[in-house]
Structures are given as C-alpha cells and as structure tokens.
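Handout, section B. The chain below has 88 residues.
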Amino acid sequence: MTNSSKSTKSNKSIQKYITNYIWNLLISLDQLFNTILGGYPDETMSSRMGKNLMKKNCRLCKFICGLLNKIDKNHCIDAIENDEGEQI
C-alpha cells in the first residue's frame, strides 16, 4: 500500500469519525430540547411532533413538520420512536 492510499484511508476514517460525532451531538441536543420542553429525555423532538401529528392535536407540529418535509420527506412520521415517550 502506498503512502498516498494510506493517507486517503486515514482521512476518510477521520472524516467518518467527525461526521458521526456531529450527528450524535445533534441528536443529543434534540433530545435535550425535548426534555427541557417537558418531553421524554430519550426521545427526539421530531418523534414527539410526529406522534402529535398522528393524533392531529398540534397545529405547531403540523407547521414545523411541513417545513421539515420540504427537506426530508415524511421526516416527523419516519422519526417516530415507538419505544420512547408517549405511546400512540
């Protein structure tokens, strides 16, 4: 293996580590905000809003999920964690 290919492998490994770290950090912040707003500590805001969207009892959730759907189709519904928080 050449030094160039070792370097490329090493750079990809570092990039993957940083990407995973940032993703995990974003999820933890999401869970923190959900907890601060009275939700279950291990559930994301998207999961909580998706559950409320399914129950049709949250206009704000409908609005925010509508915005998120423009970036990631069915984001809130797909983010529902059935094993966390309030059951639907």
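Note. The chain is about 70% helix and 0% strand. Compare this with the example in section A.
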